[in-house]
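Exercise: predict the structure of this protein bound to arginine.
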Amino acid sequence: MSDTDNIDKPWAGRFTAPTDAFVEAFTASVGFDQRLYKHDIAGSIAHARMLAHVGVLSEAECQAIIDGLRDIEIEIERGEFAWSTALEDVHMNIEARLTDRIGVTGKKLHTGRSRNDQVATDIRLYLRDQIRLIAAELLRLQQGLLTLAEQEAETVMPGFTHLQTAQPVTFGHHLMAWQEMLMRDQARLADCYTRVNVMPLGAAALAGTTYPIDRDFTARELGFAAIAENSLDAVSDRDFAIEFVSDMAILMMHLSRFSEELVLWSSAQFDFVDLGDSFCTGSSIMPQKKNPDVPELVRGKTGRVYGHLMSLLTLMKGQPLAYNKDNQEDKEPLFDTLDNVKGCLRLFADMMPQISVKRDNMREAALRGFSTATDLADYLVRNGVPFRDAHEIVGQVVRYGVDNGKDLSEMSLPELHQFSEVIEADVFDVLTLDGSVAARDHIGGTAPQQVRAAIGRARQRLSQLELASGGEV
Ligand code: ARG
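Solution:
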């Protein structure tokens, strides 16, 4: 029997001519949707149990189907399953093999079901597991970040706006900014999960089924929190996948910005951090090079996740109700997003403990660039100078510093006094880096004690993440 013969195909009845060989190859999805096999089998077992529960299948038939499917799962896991393009997709491959193994009973499994509600169910089941894995990996990164932030709660670095030295901040505070972004990414994942965790099964091809199905039973078997309300919607929309990829695009945008800072900080010009040899590579021609490949690649991969989001949005936009074959194109962008995001998170989580911080260089850089100029202005204001005048005076002090190669804290009291009579010896309390950061002592501020308090609150929030710890959402 040739591969293009229709005899084996479950839908062969209506056809008189075999599928064109290239059409068969073109329309097949088994090359990429076979990764759904576990969830396809779980969905089929739940469906068979439900059919037995309502009396459409006998208990013996149900048991034969379940045993057969479990054996097929083992075959697949051992790499012994012969995937066939002629059988188009993962669903028909498994179903055909079931009939091979258990005979005519296998043909009863598809009663009251269609590949349309089957595939929508499989993707949701698969994505549910993947979201949990991603949440757990993200949590690992967040924990690494907290450990580093705690170590660096008092480390002073220049804070930047426009990538120009602005005001001193603590490195712990800077890292906790990343923590907040990742915290929102966690929250988005959990929110997305609630919309993924809805069961399409029972919608059948598009209109529901004439069999006396019990959808609550199937949903309980599969752990779905809700049942899709409308059969047409259930088989057709992929907004849950679009929402997920859009959340991943935002997460990658954050990792990309983080990457950019790591690349800058590990350059000889900044020299704030060392990323650890196992996370860098060398150059084949320049012996001195140690390249930050990991953050660079993460930054690069962000683009492809954005691309997948655009693919999925465009895939969906023109489709009339209900299911259309277009939807088969949802899988590769989704899978590629998952694979890449998981890889990026894994690398970032592994890299966190490897980062060594060059505290002296950070402090040195903060001492350059007049980072305490705002503190001097605030000091003048506290001593009765209107803010605009204070700004002008400090501008002149900075000008003097530039001309004489001196930072603010290096100037003597008489030097400072020339610019304003209100400046006294206590000015040096605010002109030091540590004085400057300690003074921003409120929730959300950069003072070391505020950073420690923020770390404590973040730990508390992380301990309540149910999704990442495998608990029910
Ligand atoms: N492989 C298909 C997909 O991924 C399964 C559903 C096919 N349904 C159909 N009526 N052709 O969307």
